[in-house]
Amino acid sequence: MGSAGGRAAQWRAAVLKCLTAVVLATGAYVFYAHRVTMLDQVEDIVAGPRGADGTRSGGAREEMAKDTPSGLFAAEKLFERALTVHARNAYALVALADIETQLAGAGVDSRASRAAELRARAEVRDIALPERFEARALALLQEGKSAEAETYVRALLARYPHSTGAPRLNDVLGHALRAQGKVREARDSFRKAAGGAREARFTSDLAEALIDEGSFPEAIAAFDRALQMSPSHPRAQIGKARALVALAREGRGDPAVARALLEPVIQAPDAEMTPALRARALAVRADARLVQGDAAGASQDAQAAVAIDAKLSLALKARALAVLAGPDRARGEESLRAAIAADRFDPSTYADGADALLAAGDPAAAARILDSAASALPKSARLSLARARVEERKGDLVAAQAALDQSLKLDPSSAAAYLVQGRIAEKKREFKVAAQSYARASQLRDDLPEPYARMGSLYLATKQVTEAIRVFNEALARYRATHAPPGVMEAFYEDVHSSLGKAGERKLAAEWLKSARAER
Questions:
Q1: Pick from 27, 93, 263, 337: most CB atoms within 10 A?
Q2: Rounded CA separation 165/153 (Å)
Q3: pLDDT in tens, 65-88
Q4: Buried/exposed code over 320-343 (b: 16+ C-beta within 10 A; e: otherwise)
Q5: Could you read off the pLDDT of 101-144 as tens digits, one per residue?
């Protein structure tokens, strides 16, 4: 047996080992507990605290998904807080980089440098999350590198075809395609994004693409879906207002409703709205005021929008249309050119600009604007129809018919195209074809007043006065139902009054006009 001292030494060694093990175990437990607590804290911030049913809600991710300025500002603060708790949290880093990049693109001060710094940190760590990829692609778009952005995103989609981030990537791909004028491919990409995830942002992007192609009712339905997902979503409010104004321009929408949608965006405090969204809202309100006949108010709103964003095509177009409401057609055409230079791929600038120039009595300038569209955009039903209207006004019925045939080939269900077809047939004195065209237009869109108004003129030409009055009243009912602007209503009243007078029915004309105005 060993000495007493040896045994004591052995005991001391054993105790030391036990103490060391306890310390190490305690340290490991403390580290583990700290890490678990830290991760729980981050999860509370990112996904929200747990409710009574165990589910989380109300966190940074949810705020980000709202796609509203207040939501992005709130998510920004929450992700910054998450990084103070866990400085190397990968998701918080890339999500914050994505938010800052979006805010920089929306014109929010001091976000560009911060966004670049965060993106660089995410790139160094090669964090394979959709938010990092989106942030980089958006930055490329902000730098005007749309082709590079497209290549980058397509490679990611090929690498991660079934990723939960695919909708986000398809959405940014849509923007890259739109920036290059590939409007149909862009619409399809936005549709994939909207179909892959229920987020207001993706649905609004699809709706804006639908406005580009002139599908206004479908766009309104999509914006309504976005507003269900994210109430008070500014882009959806602005976009829906824009579609309503476009319909009002056709005599079947209410610009007052559009303006009511825009007021909350325009009046919101700076802490709750981005400069880019406020500028867009002002530009669309300018458009609504033009439809209401308030050219002075429209000019003020357009100038205010341009003051915020001097390159905003919508604002430049509204300013041009306000100019064209006056006598200076040359300056109006020049202003339209500025709007086109800001966004060559917005069909509404060409179509609305050509219509405004026609209304101003300058079909040659309208034709020049549409010539510019031909070199920038693929053929579309909307632009072909605008060309048909211009050629009809110029008196070139052969060219008008050719453009109309192209429009109907691209969109056989266009009631507006059949209206133009009817007018062309009238000028050719092919009254049976004209009547058939107006009937077809009314079948496709029973809410349209114009087919009935035109059929009334045809009935008067064949002395069928009773039938003429009947369809004039049908047109009147539809103008009222669609809340046609006062200027449109007055033009209709005068047209019916004049047509009845020319048909030798002056007394009936006066009685009809008095009755129609009394029922307003």
A1: 93
A2: 11
A3: 999 999 999 999 999 999 998 889
A4: bbbbbbeeebeebbebbbbbbebb
A5: 999 999 998 899 999 999 999 999 999 999 999 999 999 999 99
Spell out the domains of the chain, with CATH numbers in brackets. 20-49+58-143 (no CATH), 447-520 (1.25.40)
Which of 21-25, 48-52, 116-120 has the lowest average pLDDT?
21-25
Can you tell me which residue has the tokens 């009947």?
A: 470
Which residue is associated with the tokens 């998904």?
Answer: 65
Read off the pTM.
0.85
For CA atoms 232, 262, 475, 363, give the dihedral sign.
negative
pLDDT at residue 253 greater than cutoff 80: no
The span from the CA of 71 to the CA of 419, in Å, is 45
Alpha helices in 309-463 (DSSP H): 313-324, 329-342, 347-359, 363-376, 381-394, 397-410, 415-427, 431-444, 450-461
Q: What is the 3-state secondary structure (H, E, C) of 455-512?
A: HHHHHHHCCCHHHHHHHHHHHHHHHHHCCCCHHHHHHHHHHHHHHHHHCCCHHHHHHH
Q: Which of 406, 311, 390, 401 is closest to 350 using CA atoms? A: 390
